[in-house]
Amino acid sequence: MRRRLVLLVVATSSLVLVAFLLPLGLLVRTVAADRAIDGAVTRAQSLTPLVATLERTRLAQVVRQLDTETPDSPMTVFLADGGTVGASAPRSQAMRLAASGRSIVAQAPGGVEVLVAVQGLPDGTAVIRVFAPESELRHGLDTAWMLLGAVGAGLLVLSILVADRLARSLVWPLSDLARASDRLSAGDLTARATPAGPPEVRKVTTALNTLAGRIGELLTRERESVADLSHRLRTPLTALRIEAESLTDPEESRAIGEGLDTLERTVSDIIREARRPSHGGLWAVCDAVAVVRERADFWSVLADEQRRPMSVRIPEGPIPVLVSAEDLAACVDVLLDNVFAHTPDGVGFGIGLSPRPGGGARLTVRDAGPGFIGGLPTERGASQAGSTGLGLDIARRTAKTAAGTLELDNGPTGGAWITLELGAPPGAQPRRHRRHVRLPHADTGSR
User: pTM for this structure?
Assistant: First the structure.
């Protein structure tokens, strides 16, 4: 836009300068020619009384003296008796017309001839011819054209500078507005644009800032509502715990108590997640190795209880990914919970984490179960196993937040294969593959 505004001003200024300087240059040329012709007429008129009073010899001396002063503009006197005095010149049609008593200015080869008739002589009419060459007609014209060109170029440069400043004052607020919009679209709700520029741009900037603040308020209100609703579940949970403790069967009381503990932890996690502050959208970063290793250790206990062979392949060293640790942990929990929920006890599974060549990480979860029966779940809430179908959607949104993808497939020998691609944060350097750490569990062979 800035370049277009400058080009528009340059085109407009060029048209104005051409419309102004071209007529002015033609006027200068006309003035220069008129000045040369006026000088020639003045010289011819100054010789008119001498032609009537001096004899031919004396007149010739005067003409030669005048020619010496202006050698480029010779003078010729055509006498009434047919003789000539001064420089030789042809008797043109214009000279014959002047001999009839009319003073004229006519074009001649190489310039202009000024013919002044001298009447009242005894022998008839004499004609004084003064030749004005082309160089005299254009005297000072080149300098004038150079000055006009310099003035035009200076005005054009000045217009470019002014247009650039004006375009910058218009484009900078729009660029700042675009940057704020990009940050908002990336999830950074703290992004704001500085109101500047024309009133219309200021109005749009103010509206965008107001919209960003309103979005933040609505998200905060939604989070608080979720947290409050989740908190209300604590009252019935407490009542159920009291009922469970009053049971006479210790084993039954313990089993119900463990279920209530799990449910209470889930409610606490929901409250904590709802009230967790925003991490700035796509700019949240965590170490995928540390998060996946911690969640694998957590789920390995349950895998041992259900006698599930578990294979874990995690490289050494950090792998930074473009997602928060809480979101990645929740995503891993969802994927592993699907394995435990939709496969029988004793079915093995594997967890793999590896760095991507371009940065980021690739997380894989594969099991030896029946796989995705009835087709791959591609829509939110779609499930063939009787669940809500929202678990994979959480993983899909985590991948999207991390500038990655989620791929679902059935293994060649059965089982569900889930691959989660996670992007690298800006400025992160791709790392080389290192040896993996394998937890002491049997490999299922399915991943």
Answer: 0.45
Element (H, E) at 202: helix 199-232
Tracing tokens 């809430």 back to the chain, one arrives at: 381
Q: Is 285 helix (H, G, I), strand (E, B) or coil?
A: coil
Q: Determine the Cα–Cα distance for residues 307 and 441; give it in Å rounded to an integer.
A: 10
For residue 233, give both structure tokens: 């579940």
Q: Quick one: CA dihedral 180, 182, 185, 187, positive or negative? A: negative
Q: What is the DSSP string of 372-414?
A: STTS---STT--SSSS-S-HHHHHHHHHHHTT--EEEEE-TTS
Q: Nearest 5 degrees, angle CA 196-CA 200-CA 206?
A: 60
Asked if 1 and 174 count as a contact pair (C-beta separation under 8 A), the reply is yes
At 44, the amino acid letter reads: A
Note whether 75 and 130 are within 8 A (CB). Answer: yes
Per-residue pLDDT of the chain (447 residues; tens, 9 = 90+): 677 777 888 888 888 888 888 888 888 888 888 888 888 888 888 888 888 788 888 888 888 888 888 888 888 888 877 788 888 888 888 888 888 888 888 888 888 888 888 887 877 888 888 888 888 888 888 888 888 888 888 888 888 888 888 877 778 888 888 888 888 877 777 888 888 888 888 898 899 889 888 888 888 777 777 767 666 776 777 777 777 777 777 888 778 877 777 777 777 766 666 666 554 444 578 899 999 999 999 999 989 988 999 999 999 889 999 888 888 888 898 899 888 888 888 999 999 999 988 889 999 999 988 887 766 665 544 445 444 456 687 888 888 888 888 998 888 877 889 999 998 887 665 555 444 444 434 333 333
* Residues 6+ away with beta carbon under 8 Å from 445: 348, 368
CATH 3.30.450.20 fits 2-139, yes or no: yes
Cβ-count burial 139-164 (b if 16+ within 10 Å, e if not): bebeebbeebeeebeebbeebeeebe
Closest listed residue to residue 43, CA positions, set 77, 14, 20, 12: 77
Q: Which region holds residue 18: left if phi is over 0, alpha if psi is between -120 and 50, else beta?
A: alpha
283-438 CATH, one of 1.10.3720.10, 3.40.1370.10, 3.30.565.10, 3.30.460.10: 3.30.565.10
